[in-house]
Amino acid sequence: MATATRQLSTAAERREALIEAATEVFAERGFHGTPTTAIAKAAGISQAYLFRLFPTKEELYVAAVERCYERLAATMRAGAANAAKAGIPALEGMGLAYMELVRDRTTLRGTLHVFAAASGGDPVIQEAARSGYGMLFEVVKQLSGADDEKLRDFFAHGMLITVLAGMDAPSVDADWARSLLGGDLSDCVA
Predict the structure, then answer these.
(1) Which of 9, 40, 106, 181 has the least CB density, counted as fewest CB within 10 Å?
(2) How far apart are alpha carbons 33 and 176 in whole angstroms?
(3) What does the radius of gyration of the chain's CA atoms come to, in whole angstroms?
(4) Domain boundaries, the chain
Protein backbone atom coordinates (compact mmCIF):
# COMPACT_ATOMS: atom_id res chain seq x y z
CA MET A 1 0.00 0.00 0.00
CA ALA A 2 1.34 3.42 -0.98
CA THR A 3 1.81 5.88 1.81
CA ALA A 4 0.71 9.44 1.36
CA THR A 5 3.60 11.83 1.63
CA ARG A 6 3.03 15.14 3.27
CA GLN A 7 4.06 18.10 1.17
CA LEU A 8 5.86 20.57 3.41
CA SER A 9 6.02 24.20 2.52
CA THR A 10 9.33 25.95 2.29
CA ALA A 11 10.14 28.68 4.78
CA ALA A 12 9.73 31.20 1.95
CA GLU A 13 6.24 29.89 1.16
CA ARG A 14 5.26 29.97 4.83
CA ARG A 15 6.67 33.47 5.17
CA GLU A 16 4.61 34.56 2.15
CA ALA A 17 1.46 32.95 3.55
CA LEU A 18 2.12 34.60 6.90
CA ILE A 19 2.47 38.06 5.31
CA GLU A 20 -0.81 37.55 3.45
CA ALA A 21 -2.60 36.41 6.61
CA ALA A 22 -1.07 39.27 8.62
CA THR A 23 -2.11 41.81 6.00
CA GLU A 24 -5.72 40.67 6.32
CA VAL A 25 -5.78 40.46 10.12
CA PHE A 26 -3.96 43.77 10.61
CA ALA A 27 -6.41 45.38 8.15
CA GLU A 28 -9.29 44.19 10.29
CA ARG A 29 -7.89 45.10 13.70
CA GLY A 30 -4.98 47.50 13.22
CA PHE A 31 -1.47 47.14 14.60
CA HIS A 32 -2.25 47.65 18.26
CA GLY A 33 -5.51 45.67 18.21
CA THR A 34 -4.07 42.57 16.58
CA PRO A 35 -2.61 39.82 18.75
CA THR A 36 0.04 37.67 17.07
CA THR A 37 -1.98 34.60 18.10
CA ALA A 38 -4.75 35.71 15.71
CA ILE A 39 -2.26 36.09 12.87
CA ALA A 40 -0.66 32.71 13.55
CA LYS A 41 -4.10 31.08 13.59
CA ALA A 42 -5.09 32.77 10.30
CA ALA A 43 -1.81 31.60 8.74
CA GLY A 44 -2.22 28.08 10.07
CA ILE A 45 1.06 28.11 11.97
CA SER A 46 2.11 28.20 15.60
CA GLN A 47 2.87 31.47 17.30
CA ALA A 48 6.39 30.16 17.94
CA TYR A 49 6.90 29.63 14.21
CA LEU A 50 5.51 33.12 13.51
CA PHE A 51 8.27 34.54 15.71
CA ARG A 52 10.88 32.38 13.96
CA LEU A 53 9.88 34.00 10.68
CA PHE A 54 9.41 37.50 12.12
CA PRO A 55 11.14 38.06 15.48
CA THR A 56 8.81 40.96 16.39
CA LYS A 57 5.23 41.94 15.70
CA GLU A 58 6.57 45.25 14.41
CA GLU A 59 8.68 43.48 11.75
CA LEU A 60 5.64 41.51 10.62
CA TYR A 61 3.57 44.71 10.47
CA VAL A 62 6.22 46.40 8.34
CA ALA A 63 6.06 43.45 5.92
CA ALA A 64 2.27 43.85 5.78
CA VAL A 65 2.64 47.61 5.16
CA GLU A 66 5.08 46.91 2.34
CA ARG A 67 2.60 44.42 0.85
CA CYS A 68 -0.16 47.04 0.98
CA TYR A 69 1.99 49.57 -0.88
CA GLU A 70 3.07 46.92 -3.41
CA ARG A 71 -0.63 46.34 -4.20
CA LEU A 72 -1.25 50.05 -4.53
CA ALA A 73 1.74 50.43 -6.89
CA ALA A 74 0.61 47.43 -8.96
CA THR A 75 -2.83 49.04 -9.23
CA MET A 76 -1.27 52.29 -10.46
CA ARG A 77 0.81 50.42 -13.04
CA ALA A 78 -2.24 48.53 -14.31
CA GLY A 79 -4.28 51.74 -14.38
CA ALA A 80 -1.63 53.53 -16.43
CA ALA A 81 -1.39 50.59 -18.86
CA ASN A 82 -5.17 50.54 -19.28
CA ALA A 83 -5.18 54.30 -19.79
CA ALA A 84 -2.62 54.00 -22.58
CA LYS A 85 -4.79 51.38 -24.31
CA ALA A 86 -7.89 53.55 -23.91
CA GLY A 87 -6.15 56.73 -25.05
CA ILE A 88 -6.82 58.61 -21.80
CA PRO A 89 -4.33 60.38 -19.51
CA ALA A 90 -2.36 58.08 -17.21
CA LEU A 91 -3.51 59.89 -14.06
CA GLU A 92 -7.13 59.35 -15.06
CA GLY A 93 -6.51 55.64 -15.63
CA MET A 94 -4.73 55.32 -12.30
CA GLY A 95 -7.56 57.12 -10.56
CA LEU A 96 -10.12 54.77 -12.10
CA ALA A 97 -8.03 51.78 -11.06
CA TYR A 98 -7.84 53.13 -7.51
CA MET A 99 -11.61 53.62 -7.41
CA GLU A 100 -11.90 49.93 -8.21
CA LEU A 101 -9.31 48.99 -5.61
CA VAL A 102 -11.26 50.59 -2.76
CA ARG A 103 -13.76 47.74 -3.19
CA ASP A 104 -11.13 45.53 -1.58
CA ARG A 105 -11.86 46.11 2.09
CA THR A 106 -8.55 44.56 3.14
CA THR A 107 -6.54 47.08 1.13
CA LEU A 108 -8.83 49.95 2.14
CA ARG A 109 -8.76 49.16 5.85
CA GLY A 110 -5.09 48.28 5.74
CA THR A 111 -4.27 51.64 4.19
CA LEU A 112 -6.29 53.50 6.81
CA HIS A 113 -4.67 51.50 9.63
CA VAL A 114 -1.19 52.26 8.26
CA PHE A 115 -1.86 55.98 8.63
CA ALA A 116 -3.20 55.47 12.16
CA ALA A 117 -0.27 53.27 13.22
CA ALA A 118 2.25 55.69 11.71
CA SER A 119 0.75 58.52 13.73
CA GLY A 120 1.48 56.58 16.93
CA GLY A 121 5.10 57.69 17.00
CA ASP A 122 6.80 54.33 16.37
CA PRO A 123 9.75 55.36 14.15
CA VAL A 124 9.99 51.97 12.40
CA ILE A 125 6.31 52.00 11.41
CA GLN A 126 6.51 55.67 10.46
CA GLU A 127 9.47 54.93 8.19
CA ALA A 128 7.64 52.00 6.57
CA ALA A 129 4.63 54.25 5.88
CA ARG A 130 6.81 57.07 4.55
CA SER A 131 8.89 54.74 2.42
CA GLY A 132 5.82 53.06 0.94
CA TYR A 133 4.09 56.36 0.24
CA GLY A 134 7.28 57.74 -1.31
CA MET A 135 7.61 54.69 -3.53
CA LEU A 136 3.97 55.05 -4.60
CA PHE A 137 4.53 58.74 -5.36
CA GLU A 138 7.55 57.91 -7.53
CA VAL A 139 5.60 55.24 -9.43
CA VAL A 140 2.73 57.64 -10.16
CA LYS A 141 5.13 60.46 -11.09
CA GLN A 142 7.12 58.25 -13.45
CA LEU A 143 4.04 56.72 -15.10
CA SER A 144 2.17 59.98 -15.50
CA GLY A 145 4.91 62.53 -16.10
CA ALA A 146 2.70 64.92 -14.13
CA ASP A 147 4.04 68.06 -12.50
CA ASP A 148 4.01 68.62 -8.73
CA GLU A 149 0.66 70.41 -8.71
CA LYS A 150 -1.11 67.63 -10.60
CA LEU A 151 0.53 65.01 -8.40
CA ARG A 152 -0.57 66.87 -5.26
CA ASP A 153 -4.14 67.02 -6.59
CA PHE A 154 -4.07 63.34 -7.53
CA PHE A 155 -2.86 62.22 -4.10
CA ALA A 156 -5.20 64.60 -2.28
CA HIS A 157 -8.15 63.27 -4.26
CA GLY A 158 -7.01 59.71 -3.58
CA MET A 159 -6.83 60.42 0.14
CA LEU A 160 -10.34 61.90 0.05
CA ILE A 161 -11.61 58.79 -1.76
CA THR A 162 -9.92 56.59 0.84
CA VAL A 163 -11.50 58.42 3.76
CA LEU A 164 -14.95 58.62 2.15
CA ALA A 165 -14.87 54.94 1.19
CA GLY A 166 -13.66 54.01 4.67
CA MET A 167 -16.67 55.65 6.29
CA ASP A 168 -19.07 54.47 3.55
CA ALA A 169 -19.98 58.06 2.70
CA PRO A 170 -21.89 56.99 -0.44
CA SER A 171 -24.58 55.55 1.83
CA VAL A 172 -25.05 58.88 3.62
CA ASP A 173 -27.86 61.15 2.47
CA ALA A 174 -26.37 64.49 3.52
CA ASP A 175 -25.14 67.64 1.79
CA TRP A 176 -21.54 67.18 2.95
CA ALA A 177 -21.37 63.64 1.52
CA ARG A 178 -22.88 64.61 -1.82
CA SER A 179 -20.59 67.63 -2.08
CA LEU A 180 -17.40 65.74 -1.23
CA LEU A 181 -18.27 62.76 -3.39
CA GLY A 182 -18.75 65.01 -6.42
CA GLY A 183 -20.07 61.93 -8.14
CA ASP A 184 -21.12 58.48 -7.15
CA LEU A 185 -18.69 56.19 -5.38
CA SER A 186 -21.39 53.68 -4.51
CA ASP A 187 -20.35 51.26 -7.23
CA CYS A 188 -16.79 51.36 -5.88
CA VAL A 189 -17.58 50.74 -2.23
CA ALA A 190 -18.47 47.26 -1.10
Answers:
(1) 9
(2) 31
(3) 19
(4) 63-181
